[in-house]
Amino acid sequence: MTHEFPRMTGSAFAPDWFETMAVNASAAERRAATLTTRRTVKKEFQAAWLARAITCIDLTTLAGDDTAGRVQRLCAKARAPLRGDLMAALGLDQLTVGAVCVYPTMVSHAVRALEGSGIPVASVATGFPAGLTPLPLRLAEIRYAVEQGAAEIDIVITRELVLTGKWQALYDEIRQMREACGPAHMKAILATGDLKTLTNVYKASMVAMQAGSDFIKTSTGKEDVNATLPVSLTMVRALRDFRERTGQWVGFKPAGGLKTAKDAMNWLVLMKEEADVRWTMPDLFRIGASSMLGDIERQLEHYVTGRYSAANRHALA
Known about the structure:
The protein is α/β, with parallel strands linked by helices. The protein has one domain: Aldolase class I (TIM Barrel). It has helices spanning 25-38, 43-55, 68-79, 84-90, 107-113, 135-148, 159-163, 167-180, 198-210, 229-246, 261-274, 292-305, and strands at 57-60, 99-102, 121-124, 152-156, 185-189, 215-217, 251-253, 287-289. An eight-stranded parallel sheet has the order 7-6-5-4-3-2-1-8. Helix 2 crosses helix 11, helix 2 packs antiparallel against helix 12 and helix 10 (229-246) packs parallel to helix 11. The two termini are 21 Å apart. The mean pLDDT is 94. Belongs to the DeoC/FbaB aldolase family. DeoC type 2 subfamily. Pfam families: DeoC. It is found in: Cytoplasmic granule. Its main location: cytoplasm. InterPro entries: Aldolase_TIM, DeoC, DeoC/FbaB/LacD_aldolase.
């Protein structure tokens, strides 16, 4: 998979773009609730959307007991996310996930397993998930992952800088991370469950984009609260505002707690309704997930056969 859009250049630090912003949490929650009830997608249209969702998945393993073998099995699933009979029934001749996301020490295993597939390897870095190691070590970890072959780097921001309103410091830190990524695309994980308010989420989103992030991402998956629709709505409106100001297309990645085909549909509806259908393509939209793929495959088998299969017929890795 290639990135259609160039690396983001970001902008100069411009606090006037966000410092007076205040997000109405109740209104955001009401709007998010209507997104999943006002629109329904059924039958062949739902199947098509679920196939699109597969292409947007960052198939992920971020466990303390990850091994080369586990990563290789995950990469095999990334290359062939649907069984051959389902591919044929759906009229698909090629389908892969958006990327495979692993820890830095697992990058080389993933790169070898995905050779020739066109699937990029994404690596978390910068002291994931807390991001509280010294900045020089975080920058060194980014450079290590890129040297190992990662084409995408998922960095974590310092939440303290958001909670204390140190926006210039946050901008400067992310800018250094962006430079350390070199040619790799950078996704800035905001860890929104730690940011306390939707206003903080909006401001952190804008600073991350000004600093040159190619994507903004909701969560590490390790916080108590991960991706939610109100948070995602706030971030999508921030990236829409950033595009209106700069003309730059910044991607969006919800992650953490997204497990079902219904979740995939809900977030695709959010992108289409609040942004643009162009933001439902894998170079601008990713879903950080692992078990979601198995449920999508079950739903597609139901569409093809009219029957639900056991989950163990759709092994992930």
